[in-house]
Automatic annotation (TrEMBL):
Name of the protein in question: Putative carboxysome structural protein in ethanol utilization
NCBIfam families the UniProt entry points to: PRK15468.1
PANTHER family tied to this protein: BACTERIAL MICROCOMPARTMENT SHELL PROTEIN EUTS, ETHANOLAMINE UTILIZATION PROTEIN EUTS
One Pfam family recorded for the sequence: BMC
Lineage of source species: Bacteria, Pseudomonadati, Pseudomonadota, Gammaproteobacteria, Enterobacterales
Keywords from the named record: Bacterial microcompartment
Organism: Klebsiella pneumoniae
């Protein structure tokens, strides 16, 4: 039986590729994610991966949130707390990280869409004039 092998690669760059807030998650979802039941869960993926450490620090200093998971190699960050606190923590990351290390940021709950050779944020599909090319 052949073993399946997964290789994960990041395009070199500095960006927040995912920022999502889950308000009022159910007990089962919180358990599966590995955090205690709370008002909200915030999920972020950042490149380079070490940026997740900075984002976690900024979120905790800006609001009453807790870190549920942080991986400096993959850039994954999960924070949890009340809805307002998680939203404030994630927003603080966006406001403070950009000038700090010049990241390209997607807005919270904004998706990236890949086209032939470029990736665009979802707002391009909604005829946004920003045309964020990544």
């Amino acid at each position: 039986m052949d073993k399946e092998r997964i290789i994960q690669e990041f395009v070199p760059g500095k960006q927040v590729t995912l920022a999502h807030l889950i308000a009022h998650p159910g007990a089962e979802l919180a358990k599966k994610i590995g955090v205690p039941e709370s008002g909200a869960i915030g999920i972020m993926t950042l490149t380079p991966g070490e940026t997740a450490m900075i984002a976690g620090d900024l979120a905790m200093k800006a609001a009453d949130v807790h870190i549920g998971f942080l991986d400096r190699f993959s850039g994954a960050l999960v924070i949890y707390g009340s809805v307002g606190a998680v939203e404030e923590g994630a927003s603080a990351d966006h406001r403070r990280i950009r000038p700090l290390i010049k990241l390209y940021l997607v807005r919270i709950n904004e998706k990236l869409i890949e086209s032939d050779h470029e990736a665009y944020c979802d707002c391009r599909r909604r005829r946004c004039r920003k045309n964020h090319v990544i």
